[in-house]
Amino acid sequence: MSGQSVDSYYSAIKEAIENGNVAEAKIEVIGLIKQDLAAQALLAIKKARAAKLFTAKELEFEAAYCHFTLGSYDDAKKALKKVTASKAVTHLLAQIAYKSDDYAECVNLYEELLRDTDKESEEYQDLLLNQSAAKAAALQSAQSAGEQRPTEEHGSSYELMFNAATDLLVRGRIAEAADLLEMAATQARSSLASEGWSQEDIEGEVAPIEAQRGVALQTQGKTAEARAVFSRLLADKSLEGSARDIVAHNAAVLSISEYARRDIALDRVKRALQLPGSATRQLSRAQRALMRFNMAVVQFSQGQYASARRSLSRLSKSYSDIPNASAGTLSAAISLHLGSVDKALNELATISRSQQPSDAVFATLAAAQVAISAGDNQRALDVLTAWKDRAEGVSLGSLSAADQFARYYFGIVQLIGWLSGSRMSSTAPDAAKHLYTQVSKPGTYSARLLAAVGDCLALAGEPDAAKSCFNQAKQAAAEQNADVGTLGSTCLHAVLASGDNGAHQMSIAQLLKGYSRRSRVTRVIPGVRIRVSRQYQPKSSNASAGDGARSKKSAAAAKQPVKAKPQEGSRTKKYRASRQRRLAKNPPKNYDPERKPDSERWIPLRQRSYYKPRGRNRKQLKMRGGAQGGASEAGAGLGVTGSARIAGHIDGSQTPGHDSDDDHHEDSAAKNPQQTSGAGHSKSKGGKGGKKGGKKGGKGKRGW
Q1: N or C: which end of the chain has fewer CB within 10 A?
Q2: pTM of the predicted structure, to 2 decimals
Q3: E strand or H helix at 551
Q4: Where do the H-state alpha helices sit in 116-262?
Q5: What is the C-alpha to C-alpha distance for residues 400 and 414, in angstroms, rounded to an integer?
Q6: Measured between alpha carbons, how far is 359 from 341 in angstroms, rounded to an integer?
Q7: Per-domain residue ranges for the chain?
């Protein structure tokens, strides 16, 4: 059959129809589809209809499948509207939804199919496999498909283990995902070896699982193990196409922090981070967007701020529908390095307003720092006050890191009081009481949160409420099997050690002795540095009584005559004036007073973004044939999950064939690349065949 031409198929179809055998004609059409000749099969159907051999609705499902195979998803949907509803139609609609990136609809369609399928059948396992891949993709793209449960049902199938691990990665359960991926790799090797697969084919099937495990290790901070996994995968060439490019990208991301100060190494990393050309068609938009963002990060690390700005501009134009929280921070850092302080401040203030209060803490503190450094204390006060007003509406019980948020809230409220010039304001007690009111509501709160609120109460001068809160924290720690010493509290032991005889006031007074405003800022707010906190307290024109000696000394110094600064020598003035006259009469070659200086003039010519090699080097570059390499916090990787290719078999009589929180700073945060999604994509069940059988699908056929 494989040696026949399209005309011979059409002749067979025509002969079958003339003999009244429509079923045989359908078999001939399906034969074309089975040989991956979807375009020819669609042409044969159209010819048969034009010759009035078929009615308008006959072979409509096969035509829809041909459109699906060719990527014409809208035409496939139109064709399916003419077909009577059936299980096969629903299955094909689920595949179309996945290919159209409508993962939420895909999950719902597979849920409908699973309800009508026997759990003991092989078909149920195939559907469950595809649904798990759709769930992982939906989570990654932030699509909601109702109340999604983690894919816990994986049994002994390594494909389901893979997709369940991908699901766990998206949900942040990294350690569980790494263990499950290791189990999946072991299970894949044993099951495929028992089926008679060759060692080369087995390694090709296990490679995506190992790549995803490398991502999990990289996310956990185990960079040495992750680098070993990526190096092994790149060396044995078991991955192909975009999967190999993604792993190369992950390996390059690991090198960014290692060679942060070595421009030559960063050039090599930059080449590896290049988008992999035609292979990007197989990558998701989220993957391509984060790859482009990583390139901007490397350009920023090299001091190529203009190039990094252009990369961010292209990112916002081409991928405006994909949010990237770090892009705004990087843009603000670029503005600061280019001297545009107002622009950087506006960008940080915009991020502070647009993000949730729990996510906007860094941008808020960074904006306040920039404003204070520029001498605009009122702007800093406005940014902090706007964040405080929104933060007061946040429920602490709904946050994953509620203890850290409580400390930030308490510290920022103190900054607001100090920036407003009211030294004896009640902002700190009010903030502590607000937090105490939050944890006093019915609900379950972590011991760390209760300890953090207790610290705020103690520092605000509320010892009774602090003691009550610390007792609750101690009780919660016992219930949660946590050690009291690991709660991160600075006042818990001192407050609980004091009795009820009135001595607790003295204990807290001793605890806070010498606790200056500057140290209070640095201890309460983890993200503020000492050199920054010195600027947070504005100078007051009225000296306090305690500063009397200092004021007298300053007044005495003010009465003494001030020595005049040495004047610039007349000889220097003459030389400067004559030089300016010479330049005005005979300007240098190609001098243009309107031209702005090149922002990259301080770096070597070969490292500038606009450099084009000439001669022999240019010829070698052409011979290499385009970008090299291809597959983001430093030390992360190409993301948590990827998309699955669902090119499965559709059963039915009609079918053809599935930074550290302790040191927040805009520069350091902006230099951290992010993980691009999908070092190992989710697996999905293929059609009949596989590596041992037909060309399409097969058990374990991975989709990239």
Answers
A1: N
A2: 0.52
A3: helix 548-559
A4: 122-140, 158-170, 174-194, 199-219, 223-236, 241-258
A5: 24
A6: 23
A7: 1-84, 107-301+628-658+676-704, 356-538
